Amino acid sequence: MMKVLITGFEPFAGEAINPSWQVASALHGWQLDDEVSIVSVKLPCVFKQCLLQLEQAISQFKPVVVIMLGQAGGCAQLQLEKIASNFINAPYPDNAGQQPRNTLTASHGPAAYFSNLPINAMLQALHSQQIPAQLSLSAGSYVCNHSFYGLMHLIKNQFASIKGGFIHLPYLPEQALHKADTASMALATLIDAIKICVEVSLLQQPDQLVV
Ligand code: PCA
Fold first, then answer.
1. At 16, which CATH number?
2. CB of 175 closer than 6 A to ligand 1?
3. Is the CB of 147 under 6 A from ligand 1?
4. Ligand 1 in contact with 166 (CB < 6 A)?
5. Position 210 in a domain
6. How far does the centroid of ligand 1 lie from the alpha carbon of residue 70, in Å?
7. Residue-range definition of the domain harbouring residue 97
8. CB of 190 closer than 6 angstroms to any ligand 1 atom
9. pLDDT for 90-105, tens place per residue?
10. How close is the Cα of 1 to the center of ligand 1, in Å?
């Protein structure tokens, strides 16, 4: 059985939940057909450990597609991340109290990698189902961008057949309840959205650059 790996993060920055893990865990074990099923893994919101656990999950499950999810509190739409940058500048400490500033994820890596998920086709499919989603050109400079860059670095150097990338999610409604004027999206909508992204990722080729 081929595997699609979905990762989510544990809660951070004082939140009780993280939509990324709520969505990923809901999809764990989902079987798309006779050939493909989803395995979900929770990553710590800790710079060093998240990459070690990601690499371990990839080695163990040998997925054909990896979709990493993270929370982007305050955004109103799913953010389909195009660019993983080799730059870390944590605005606050991670869950282990580390706060790397002005540094790199990979000291000998390129400045950035593109996602190799079929982002354009994913956006089209989401919009056709009336799910708000947009292309994002920065995944930030905190743990999510670090893990996204780490994934693309692994794909480039060790697992060339994997299609992988990152999607940031809005808060869930219960997180936005007591924050003024803050966007959120229902869990059921987010789950539907990631199912669509998985299906499109399996069917479509990565976005082609026009050169
Ligand atoms: N979001 C954070 C880290 C974990 C998460 O879910 C980020 O955007 O970097």
1. 3.40.630.20
2. no
3. no
4. no
5. no
6. 5
7. 2-203
8. no
9. 999 999 999 999 999 9
10. 30
CA–centroid distance, 130 to ligand 1, in Å, is 25
Ligand 1, from 45, 51, 54, 79: best to mutate by most atoms within 8 Å of Cβ?
45
Q: Which pLDDT value is given to residue 33?
A: 93
| pLDDT band, residue 20 (cuts 50/70/90) | very high
Q: Which two tokens stand for residue 133?
A: 């989603």
pLDDT bracket for residue 109 (50, 70, 90)? very high
Q: Which residues are catalytic?
A: 144
Handedness of CA 84, 88, 89, 90 (dihedral sign): positive
Q: Whose CA is nearest to atom 9 of ligand 1?
A: 144
pLDDT confidence of residue 11: 98
Number of domains in the chain: 1
Whether residue 208 lies inside any domain: the answer is no
- 11 is a domain residue: yes
Spacing, Cα 23 to ligand 1 middle (Å): 14
pLDDT at residue 85, rounded to an integer: 98
Give the model's pLDDT for residue 183. 98
Write the pLDDT tens digit of every residue in 165-206. Answer: 999 999 999 999 999 999 999 999 999 999 999 999 999 999
C-alpha angle 208-138-198 in degrees, rounded to nearest 5: 55
Spatial separation of the C-alpha atoms in residues 135 and 210, rounded to whole Å: 17
At a CB cut-off of 8 Å and minimum separation 6, what does 117 contact?
65, 67, 80, 163, 164, 165, 197, 201, 206
CB count in 10 Å sphere of residue 200: 20
